[in-house]
Amino acid sequence: MPDDSFQGHTEDFVSKDKRVVVKIGSQLLANSDRLTPRFAFMQRLLDDVARLRDDGYDVILCSSGAVALGLKVVGSRPEDAGISDKQAAAACGMPVLLNAYKQIGHEFDLEIAQVLLTLGDFEDHRRFLNTRNTVNRLLKSHIVPIVNENDSITTEEIRVGDNDRLAAKIAQMVNAQHFIILTGVDGLYDRDPAEPGAKLVEEVHDVNQYLEAASGKSTLGTGGMLTKLQAANMAQNAGCTAYIANGEADHPLSSVLDGTRKCTVCVSHSEPNSLWETWLADRLQMAGSLVLTREAAARLGEDVPIHRRDVVSMDGEFTRGDVLHIYDQSGKELARGLSDFTSEETRVMTNNQDLPADQLLGYKTHAELIRPENLVVLEDRHMTWGAPQAVMSSARTSGGD
């Protein structure tokens, strides 16, 4: 069943009409040549944060920049830095970044707090809620949270990987109404903005229509327009409007919210998912996957569990409580759901379907891999993930039922 802590404290789950999450790209915060803080931009940003706060808004900043600002200290350049260089740079750059925020924030009577997160803080639902409680407590005291991934301790295998999607998870977590992605361009274009005739897309309802146009990434950052569309889609699913806008403006936030300058607006869905459904559906990494028989795939959404007999093949190493991606035999992703078993237990049960599950595992069980209340069937509005090659090869070999 959904965790009880998702069900309680319902007053905290009401949409916050004046809550804004802002993601700031590295190229806005760090000078690309000198790798030093861009104080003029940060002053304009925090001046606008103070304006919004005076208007009754809660503002959360999801800030890149720590790695870029620390590279100069460790003697590396963005184009040739390895993972250990970036980890060391993050450790050196974070104090530089926070000190800049702190010093400039004092001018506008803003109190600043640092919140460093890892992938597990989003993918584990109890840690997700603990993080949410911390952020909400800071906002209650009128403190501006500065959120970033803890790059000094994460490796490629356990990283969120980009601050665009990290920021979108924060927007989901706090039920924000607005999610602003500040970058170095005016928004999403229908093709490479350097090409003649490229046009700004001013309003987006379905981000999937623009995936081909979203390619490339900045020198300093880890994400490009694709990750921004992924992040916008995550916000939309939670009933949050996302904006992709150029950060180089006198009032980079308020001018977006009041519609006085051009940007791309990704309109929120009129019927958003619940917090529980959003947490299940919008993943940052794939823990594991299952391919279902045709019959089982056709039953999804009928309030029935996924049994071991429904599985054609599986992939990944996961634990009980991890979210699995569910595919049909053609490789189309259908759903995502919370596993009731570890990958080892699942593999033993699916590979020995003629033997009782109780006998295989040593305890009484109905062998329901995913219960219906812990399953979200994906809709057209969700961005799907391609099936792992290993699991699809296994599905084609077995043929299914």
From TrEMBL:
Q: Which GO terms describe its cellular component?
A: cytosol
> In the Enzyme Commission scheme, what number(s) does this protein have?
2.7.2.11
The question of whether Cytoplasm is a record keyword is answered with yes
In this chain, ATP is annotated as bound at K23, T222, G223, G224, M225, L226, T227, K228
Location in or out of the cell: Cytoplasm
GO terms (BP aspect): L-proline biosynthetic process
| Listed PANTHER family | GLUTAMATE 5-KINASE, ISOPENTENYL PHOSPHATE KINASE
What's the family? Belongs to the glutamate 5-kinase family.
Name of the protein in its database record: Glutamate 5-kinase
